[in-house]
Amino acid sequence: MGDRRAKSTYLTYRSLGTALQLLPEPAAQAAAAVVGEVMARRRAGPRVLRAHHLDRLLASSSPAVAPDPAVVERWARRSFRAYARYWVEGARLPAAGRAEVRQRMLIERGWEHMVEGLATGRGVVLALPHVGSWEWGGAWLAAVGHPMTSVAERIEPPELFEWFLEERRAMGLTIVPLGADSSGTVLKTLRAGGLVGLLCDRDIAGNGVGVDFFGERTTFPAGPATLALRTGATLLAGAVYSGPGRDHMGVITPPIDTTRQGSLRADATRVTQEIAGRLEGLIRRSPEQWHLYQPNWPSDPPPAPRAGPGG
């Protein structure tokens, strides 16, 4: 990316983020609705891929009945609107006070699993899908005294990535750039009894383990399972959904069994398949909030232009 283009990209995202923080919330959400509708109508490549993912999800839910294409298309359009809301809320979140974050976060079930896991002193690994707004959940965890460490893929230009890290630090999140040093930082967090949250429904590095996911074979990163197996940390799966209304809803599933049964690789594969099954259930709850706009299975169409950073 040329220096001038990189600078322009950085300034554009930073200016938009600042503008969204200054807008009254109803105006910002109205803008999100418009942007989501435009994305749904004009971004043919991402829309086709999104429909492909949703078709697979619906087909795996009722294998005997082929999904109605009109239903799939409606879900796809809803997903772009949900995605626009996610980005608007994420841009506004660093300016929200901790009292507001606590007020607008609800835990439907499973918080006791987090409390019990942290009480062991061996840390907690939270496996997350690209659903709803995980950053809002991270900000809430920091606000109630349980700051989360996570790992993120670097984005270009570097100035944009640094701004992204600063914004997440303002929310109380510690973001570690994906790379050779990231595993060491994450292990240190767990050995100190801390919380690590990892998005793991997409194998970015391409070196994960094979799993069945929505009725088709693909790969998942083995990191969450391997960390829990190596450290004895409690392994949970969870998601934070946008809604109801302006609020957010958190769900945490019971601990995943990480008892050693064989080799580390065999155990990591077994546990990762269990994670995949838990994430399926969390995604099925609100498919339109599943923000996955990149190929994730061998049968997916070729890569399309990104629906946004991290899409």
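Above is the first protein from milestone M3; the second protein from the same milestone is given next.
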Amino acid sequence: MLLRALAWMFSTDLAVDLGTANTLVYVRGEGVVLNEPSVVAISQKDHSLLAVGHEAKAMLGRAPDSIQVLRPLRHGVIADFDTTERMLKYFITTVHRRRRLVYPRIVLTVPTGITQVEKRAVRASAQQAGAREVFLIEQAMAAAIGAGLPIQEPGGHMVVDIGGGTTEVAILSLAGIVYSKSVRLAGDEMDEAIIQHLRRTYSLLIGERQAEEVKIALGSAYPEGGDDQKRDVKGRDLIGGFPKTVVVTGAEVREALRDPVMAVVNAVQACLEQAPPELAADIVDKGIVLTGGGALLRGLDRLLHEQTDLPITVSDDPLTCVAHGAGSLLDQLALLRRVAIRA
């Protein structure tokens, strides 16, 4: 028993927020030590790993046929098992670069609505990457813990985690999820909405990377004075085939984002409609907490307040909230086993 306790205390256990857009790794006792895009570049010739993370993302849309640039996760779940395993193994090795590789416990976050098959794929991927024990935690639970919500108390708390591939909406009480809704529509669909807008309006074709840059620079969910902001967007003319540049405004980007943004709002409203009366009363007082990269979309908190008439709070560090929540469970073994889900 003592040996197990010492192993737990001095192990290099990890929490991994395995996201569609970014993967974050939290090391027990150190915090978030890695935040890289979930992108991998592989040689078509010998299938060797050429780049992972930021370096691979820079190749998106720019690589020759001899290099395949992949995003192995889609909508929060594994779309390419082998590539995900290699990416995880690379990140784990990177984190342990100055010490002999041990086999850590790993806490992995997953969307609420994934299937048993998908859960087993995530668990197997982590085990193949070197984990000796794997715990799966729902992203909404990890987000709530990372946001500092007292989830073990008998009171209702509502969290909305907007990532790259999924939006997780959940009502929590007594360390459990009372009701949740997972929508496979989030940051990636916002990028795609911008791509389609430019295609329809200007016959301009741009890639995912540039669409994300436009979203960050001009994107908003509510008119707050940024409508006149402009940005040059470069791409390929679908009619003439030549490179060209167009100027887009904040107002048209907000309009382009209307459908995916309203899908998030509708998911929140659907969850509120299912809340038990006592918990609904708690949420009226405490409001809704936003986490994830999508929480940074300008005006989203104001739009949600207008649509729900509830207080809306954006967590202090929405991008790392899920990783910090999952990581904090490494110091609370009893709570970790209580909230972990089975595959």
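Note on the second protein: The chain has three domains: 2-38+74-141+322-339, 155-185+260-315, 187-258.
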